[in-house]
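Bug: token stream looks shifted between consecutive jobs. Job 1:
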Amino acid sequence: MNKRIFLNILIALTLLIQSSCLAANNLPEAKLTIKVVSEDGNPIAGANVTIGFEAQKKNRQGIMSSISKEVTSANGLITVTDKTLGYIGYEAEKEEYYHSNGKYRFGTSEKGRWQPWNPEILVVLRKIENPVPMYSRNAHVSPIKVPKLGKTVGFDLVEFDWVPPYGNGNHADFIIKLTSLYNSEVDFDTKLELTFPNKFDGIQLVKEDRKIGSVLKLPRMAPEASYQKRLIRSRSRVPGKPGEDDQKEDNNYIFRIRSEEKNGKLVRAMYGKIHGDIYIDPPTSIFFKYYLNPDYTRNLEFNPQQNLFKNIPRGERIGLN
């Protein structure tokens, strides 16, 4: 490279960095306190907390941030001060706990300070208790194609396959009926009906935003009651109008399958969970992210190192969230 060109580039970069620093220095100052506690509200000392202060936006390259790393005191607290555009993100972690993350946006700035000044943000760390092997799979990557529209077909969650005559599954854990009137990407009407074969099988909705908070967000133990025998999801669109659907990112589910009974009472069953909704991909496919515990306990705490599915595509492997 020509020395003059190199020198010009170096000068330009220096001016850009100086400009960025000057812009950051002119930002209002923010002060906040983070308190890290356990699920029962007790402070956690020695937790590692990382805080990112939004300092300057770079075109098409995300956000430049000032990063602060702190360790909580005996009362679970850390207090930090830095300049920012008004938005911060944070993460807390400690050995033997699931890490947790969140975000906070300040309101207005007054006299060079963001308000509220020094808010206390509560972060809950959940204890790692009894993670177990599970069948865990992300069907978002490879949507499941329903083999027969308008008819009920059984899907085996352990084999990840349809039961005969459409596949090699052994148990119809989910009984799925997909109806679809499909003309084009902007003209369709689809409905998914999910039912179950056994008396005590079922599903229940859990509303949780899993994008923030603990990576283990849903209950550790599946509930003993309140399972519904039927779930309906729909998606439609009319040309010239926005699409309509009842699928939501904060919809999650706990399900019970392969339930066994004696004298009209539940003896045992398998339990699992679905992160996110069960989505329809018109005209013939569905997809969802599920975890199934085959040990006939209600434990829903997954060990990501012990996925019982082997040799599955990388994109279909999932961890805790």
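Job 2, same session, no restart:
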Amino acid sequence: MIQRIQTIFLILIVLLFMLLLFIPIYELTVTASVTKTAPPYAFLTQRTLLNLPILAIACGLVAVIALVAIFMFKDRLRQMRLCRSGALFAILVAADVAVFPQWFVHDIDPSAIQPALGAWLLFVNIPLFLFAYYFIKKDENLVRSADRLR
């Protein structure tokens, strides 16, 4: 059923990843010089998911897991498994973004890479998956208790 609270959490996960396509994940400080004699200057550039295809695929997979879980409302046990696996995969993706940025941004000194707002928003979907799991589990317990009364 689409009107349940866990569906709201799963829809928020999908919307968050659509929003992350346009929010910067990393800010890079790049130094360059116009000529060999001119002093180098630094400029700030930003990378979004559109610039990072490997990360975009991983985040897209998390969003697809959430989208599939929305439409598994008739099979709550499978929906709970999808939420658990989505939360686990989201933890892996968020940890990779925060701890190992050089995996996604190449040919840049790792000290010049700073996480931006998008990197921190990746951590928001983990509690959303866990909240969805909690409310699906609550519905499952309610259905099982009603079955015991029959």
